[in-house]
Amino acid sequence: MTGTGGASGADGRGDGVQNGEVRTxxxxxxxxxxxxxxxxxxxxxxIAVLVLVSALARTVGQPVAWAVDLATFFLAWGVFVxxxxxWRHNRMVSIDVLVERLxxxxxxxxxxxxxxxxxxxxxxxxxxxxxLAYTTADRSFDGLPWLSYTWVTLAVPTGCLLMLYTTxxxxxxxxxxxxxxxx
Length: 183
What we know:
Layout: E1 17-18, E2 21-22, H1 27-59, H2 65-88, H3 104-135, H4 150-153, H5 155-182
């Protein structure tokens, strides 16, 4: 079991970690990845600050319910955007004991099938997450009545769309590897 995932192609390239350094892609794909990373980092920092503020306020006898609600908001967005950051950088957990023993060409085909299944799963989550966001339009946070819960549930389809974009990038890369291995 590894934490680097084997999803970058049979040649080991892709948006991965090489020699301990995260590689970044050029162009819009790479720029989006950098924005996602900073956004996820900001969410984690804000969660820490909000939980600290909430704990300190409760300690001095002045609880602030809105801090926990905002932390929940940033947790949802940080999780789903952060999942794409992990996916882009090959940091998803994978069990590849059997796959390592296959030939590079078979590994690439298996990887292509895996990526297509992931794309279908993500597409389903985009549809269902959008439906969920629509159904939560009337719900709001207890501590923040002006903030609709829809903004939290929109993290699901948004994060899945980002992961779908990354998956499409990986599918294209894997198909390129398979084409090169034929010629």
